[in-house]
Structures are given as structure tokens and as C-alpha cells.
Amino acid sequence: MIMSRIEAAPDQDRGDLTERLLAGLPAEAVLTDPDVTASYANDMASFCPAGAPAVVVLPRTVEEVQHVMRTATALRVPVVPQGARTGLSGGANATDGCIVLSLTKMDRILEINPVDRIAVVEPGVINATLSRAVGEHGLYYPPDPSSWEMCTIGGNIGTASGGLCCVKYGVTAEYVLGLDVVLADGRLMSTGRRTAKGVAGYDLTRLFVGSEGSLGIVVRAVLALKPQPPRQLVLAAEFASAAAACDAVCRIMAGGHVPSLLELMDRTTVKAVNDLAHMGLPETTEALLLAAFDTPDPAPDLAAVGALCEAAGATQVVPADDAAESELLLQARRLSLTALEAVRGVTMIDDVCVPRSRLGDLIEGVERIAEKHQLTIGVVAHAGDGNTHPTVCFDAADADESRRARESFDEIMALGLELGGTITGEHGVGVLKKEWLAREIGPVGIEMQRAVKQVFDPLGILNPGKLF
Amino acid sequence: MIMSRIEAAPDQDRGDLTERLLAGLPAEAVLTDPDVTASYANDMASFCPAGAPAVVVLPRTVEEVQHVMRTATALRVPVVPQGARTGLSGGANATDGCIVLSLTKMDRILEINPVDRIAVVEPGVINATLSRAVGEHGLYYPPDPSSWEMCTIGGNIGTASGGLCCVKYGVTAEYVLGLDVVLADGRLMSTGRRTAKGVAGYDLTRLFVGSEGSLGIVVRAVLALKPQPPRQLVLAAEFASAAAACDAVCRIMAGGHVPSLLELMDRTTVKAVNDLAHMGLPETTEALLLAAFDTPDPAPDLAAVGALCEAAGATQVVPADDAAESELLLQARRLSLTALEAVRGVTMIDDVCVPRSRLGDLIEGVERIAEKHQLTIGVVAHAGDGNTHPTVCFDAADADESRRARESFDEIMALGLELGGTITGEHGVGVLKKEWLAREIGPVGIEMQRAVKQVFDPLGILNPGKLF
């Protein structure tokens, strides 16, 4: 259990809290049944403790969120903001006695503007819902986390989440132009803009993106959109070693190509997928690379990338002829995590990002760590970004295996830092990596980050125990 | 004169300050001759008062910058960081008795890495120097302010500056991955990363970008690079009204095109350029639109954009056949500011950015304001961004005309806000627009921004009197 660090105001008890919340929220928006509230305790991370919420609120309006925050401030009750709880770092886990503030009912798309190429949305809009809605206007919202059919834009903003698109289109942060934020004390603040450019004052918008609900509650976002690109065409390349596949990645990126996707699966992942889905990938495949282009004429790029893969030692290069074949090739990638889960029942997904020139060193190091701890660790990577997801497979019922899993998870982060990387490319810090944040950004950085937190949340009620 | 708001520590006088600075800086890096230091008082903005620096320092190392900041903190002396002083908002103007901290001697490119697509640079590197250096590796650093042959990367970061490239490539902020910053008290802090992605902790990198030297001194930057695109091909279109040209801009952007440049000159600017350079633009041209594409095959886009211009009422559409013709067409745009300066001797360049769907309303409003104040105001615009530079032409020797110029300048900002825009798309707030910042971001925003400033600069010695 994570204990709240906030000293409760004298008059706080659950009854009073609920009563005060009900003064500004409809009854159906305030959940107190412990069986129900317990179901809001966790996101999808392993190894992250969670407390028991005092209450779960589901506001539908900005004013209701303001009421929740005013109440929380008055009673000194911690508030844990939540989207769809698909996060992988425990960032949305409840703390004992907290208000879980679920933004899932604020799910309206308020505006889609094809001339200004923006959408204005509430935080509870599902990523896939927005993607499809803007698609109908010929527009494209690139960020595509694996959980895109479930996760919310608010959650994506909280964690600055990424996806397969990032090698060409970047992470969520790139698409957030402006925010409406309810501050800890209930006041409403607007940041940013709805114009293509704007540099008036400090960039508080970007400060909120990736702040994991620790600075304020995002209640509205202005998002930048791109024109819908042509459907991407995929090429798959098999390699006899991970090193050769990483060499190909370096050649592709140094060669000036801009793939819309550049994914790598290591031998462990390829084997797991083969075992699960009988996809007929050859046993000799030690690494599989998938590259795609979404330009009007992808043929020259695909040919050049195929040649670069062969020069790097690819044993087979398979370009797709059309969108349907491309989808087939991507199936293996999409099945990776499910397949790795099947290995030992549970997985712990790391999120280390290294300079792409060090990708080969990272994968080699992970193999070493897996051998040392006698564990299966598969690596799937957004290779074009150097963003790897080493996935530790373990049996949660086996205490020693669980301990070794956690140790190897940490050793992978240490290796990432050693290679000039970061402990998190797109999943966030949450509870899972907070000891590691300090190692990455150093004591001066931590001191300044804490001071910034203090500015926005002087009482420390916003998602306490996360990040720091 | 801008008076410093800092109460001087008891032991401060210029002699002591200089002596202390010389303890950690070579003699040639400390300038005290008032004739010399006076030449560092201003950037390129009109109507911005400047004070007399006590001393100008030109450090060459991070340690020297740390020494300057430690000294400034000990003596409570304000520090005004400067790049090449090409800014247009007075953000680099000296305050009385300050240390001008010129970063121009820290001008080394430390690394260019084509696989990781990054450059690591010191702040004094000239934008064009970097652009050419990365070009030799087949790479591209997009931000291209008009002053690119003179301005420094540090200055670009301070103001989050833009340029002609932004409609496709965005502003400087998009290209800053990580920073080394010397804090007000002389401590060194690293922010961000050298990886393609990274979401560990609050995004302090972006907080520093555009902070106009008010939060710390950038001494090193990791910059993202793109592959060098093909040379762009330009199309020029003449219109019988600004409204028709703006309609064309909306059709182009709603049509899903991604031009590498989309610039507009209004009738006043066209006439000024014609008068200056005898370019033979027809007298009937009320607006000139320039669009460019830098894709491998720009022909289909250029044809489609030409057709959209004609549908919007273009009187003539002139596509360039090659790069040389493209350069000729861009000449008119490049001469705009020089031509407008020639009208009355002095100009005051505004920087209002509106949603591009409101571009026509902005230009029409500027015409109304020009008429009301009996002034010549030419509009050149990064039309694809909605970022306009209404340029007020006036005779600085004529007090009444100067007053009307300032009034019209302010009225243009008010109009921009009314249209859902921002007071600055790429030039920054500085001294020129600080009263306007509060109007744009509101009292809560200003309060939080001031509190953030307080975190990084508790003594208020960093570029005082700017932004707020």
C-alpha cells in the first residue's frame, strides 16, 4: 500500500468527503461502494503497489472537476487522476483514502477544424475514436499507443505516450497546442494556443504533457492534426543476428530515409510469436525488422531500404505488394506482447530508449542480463527511435523468479542510462521508476522539478507518490 | 531607461564587480569601456528602452559562465544574456548596471551524428553555420529566421524563433532535445536527452525554450536534425484581393497539402518591393502568394495548388521550372522588409499569429487600422501558419507619427487576440509586448508563470524587466 504523505485536515472522514463532493456532483458520479472503488485502484503495471480509494468521482463538466479539486484542497485529500488505466508504470494507481478522479465521462470531441488542422477535445475521448473522427475529415492524429482502442487522450497527455508512428511523427507532446487545466485549488488556467505557432510566455503546455497528473487536471486540449497520409506499405526483413538488424536500422536512418514505422523483434519475441500463432517464421530468424513508408510513392524508399537490409546481412527481404499484405506482416509485431505473456504468465515491460546508434549494444546487453538471471526476456523495439521494450517473462507465483525479474528490469534501465539513453521513452515514470528518475536527471534536476511541482501543488494533493 | 528592480547588495560597485569577474575570466573576456559596452545595449526592436551595462562578458567555457553567474548572485547584479542581438522584441536589451552575458564566443559545433540525427552545439553557433555544417552530412536543421546568417542558436532557443520553414517543419522548439543550463546561482543542470524520445520527468527543456534568458543560461544544446529534403520548387500566384489570397491559403491547407513554404505579401508590400527593386510585378496585384514543395516529386502538389489558387480567383499563376526560377520568385519575399523600411525610414514589425482560417479577417483589420491612423502598414505573412508580420512604416523624427505607429501596433495585437490568436508567433515578448502577455494568458497564467520564474531565479537577477 502507498500511504499518502499528506496530513489530513482535522475534519476529514469519508462521510464528510462524500457529502461535500455530492454538493457539486450528481449522485451517479460519486462511487463509494468499496467493491466498486477497488476496481479503480490499478493501472496495467506489474510490481506497483496501490492503495484503496475513499471515493471515485466521474465528473462530466469542467465545473464539476473544479468542485472536486476545491473539495480536495479544503479537506487535504489526495487526488489521483485517471483515464482508461492502460498505463504501464503505476502512474494512475490509487493511494489509500484518495479521491480517484476518472475523466472517462468527459469524452466529447468539441471541434474538428480541417483548415486550422486542429481538434478540441475533452480528456476522456478514446484515442481510436478521435483518430476515426478526424479521419472522416481527411485528417490524421498520429499518436498510436498499443492501447489506442482503449486509452484516452487525457491519459496520453499525462504520460506523453508514443506508439509505432513516432519514428516519423513523434510522441503525443508534439500534438498538444493548448490545454485547459484545473489547478489543485480548483482554479481554471488556459495554456498555449489554437494557432499553428505561438511563443507568448513560458511553455506551460509542454510542462503539463507527461506530468502524470501531478501538476493539475487537464479538462480540455487543443490538438494539432496532420493530413491523412496514404496507407503505409511494409517491408519485412529477416536477419541471422540482432546485431545485423541493428546495423540495418543505422544504415536506413543514416541514409536519409523517413519510414512511417521501423520496428524490430528479437529472436525471443519471434519464437514466442511463432509458438503462439504458428506464423511460419523460419527457425533461423534471429531478428525481424519491419519498415514502412506512407508517402505517395513508397516504392523507391522500400527498394532502397531492402537493399540496405541486404547489405547489412538480411537473410530474406519481403516487401508487401499492397495494404492487405502490409497488415499481415504487421500481425507478428502486434502479437508480440501477447505472445511473450504466454511464455511465463506475466510480463514486465521496460521502456528504455537509447540513441539509435546504441541499439545493438542494448539488445546484446539484455541478452546478457537474461542469461545471468536465467529468464526469458524478449525485446520488441521502435527501432527507428531507439525505443526498446525489453519484456521480462516470469511466473508471478514464484517469488525467486519475481525477484530476478525485478532485478533484471532494473539492470536494463542501468544499461540504458550507461548507453546515453533514458529510463522511459514513452510509458512514464509513475511508481515503477521513481527511484530511477533521480538517477537519470541528477540532484539539481530533481530539486528544480520538485520546486516546480510545489508551485502548482503546494499541498501535495495531486497524485502523490508518483514521479518523485 | 529600464531600471533594475533588484536591490543591490551593499558591496556592489562597478570596480568590485569587474575585479570579481576577472578572477574567473581572462582579461579580454571582460569589457568595461563605456563606448564599447554601450554597443551591446540593444537588440533590433523599435520602441524598446535599454539601459547602460556595467560590464560585458564574453565567456568561452561552461565554467566561465558558471563563474559569471556565481558572481552575479553574490553581488545581486542583473544579468542580460545575449546572442547576436537580432531579436525584435527588446528581449536582449541591457538594463542599467547589468552584466551583459554574450554567448557569442561559445560557438563550437561539438558533434554531428547522422545515425542519431542530432547535433550538439554551444549557444553562440550561427544558425547558418550549423545549417551548412549539417548539410555536408546530408542533414537539415530547419529553423530559418530571416536573420539566419547572423543569429545564434542560443538566441533562437531563447525566443523559440521560427522562419519560412515552419508551415512544414515547425519552430525551434521542435528541434531542441536537451539542454545544459547554468542556473542563476551558477549550478549546472542538464535537461532532456539525446535520444529520439524520452518522457522522464517534467519537460524542463521546453520550459527553457522561449524563456528569453529569464530562467537560466543555455550553454549547450542537443538538436534534432532531419534528412536534407530535395530543393523546393516554388509557385507564385497573384490575386486581385487579399481576401482571395487568404481563401486560397485555406483551400490549400484544407486540401491536405503540406507545403514547405506558404507566404503571403499584401498590396502594400508588393508595391514597396516593386518601388524598390523594379521587379515588374503588375500594378493590379493586390496580394502575392508563394507556395513551395520540397518532396521528391513536387509536380502533382504544385499543379493542385495552382488549380486551388485559380479556383480562389488568382489572376495569374506562375510555377517555377527549377531551383533557379524558384529563387527568383522568393526574391520578392526576401526584399519585403527592406522595401517596407524604405517607405518612411523606420518600421515596427508585429508578429501576430491567428488561426489560419482567420487570416483574411486579420489582414482586413490591419487595412482598417492603417487607414484610421493614416499610416502605411504592409503585411507579410507566413500564411500557412497564420503568422503575420504587419509592418508599420513611420518616420521616427515625427512624434505624432511615432505615437500613431505605436497605437496601431497595439491595435493589431488586440485584433489578433480577438480573432483567437496570439501576440507573438515567433519573435517573443521581451520588453515590447510585456503588457500584452498578461492580456493573452490571463491573471492565473501570469501568476503561475511568475511562480515558475521564482523557482529558477529567486533573486530576480536573470534578464529582469522582460516578459512580465
UniProtKB/TrEMBL annotation, chains A, B:
Signal peptide: none annotated. Gene3D superfamilies: 3.30.465.10, 3.30.70.2740, Vanillyl-alcohol Oxidase, Chain A, domain 4. This is FAD-linked oxidase. Its cofactor is FAD. One of its GO terms (molecular function) is FAD binding. It comes from Streptomyces curacoi. Keywords: FAD, Flavoprotein, Oxidoreductase. Coiled coil: none annotated. Residues 49-228 form the FAD-binding PCMH-type domain. The keyword Lipid biosynthesis does not apply.
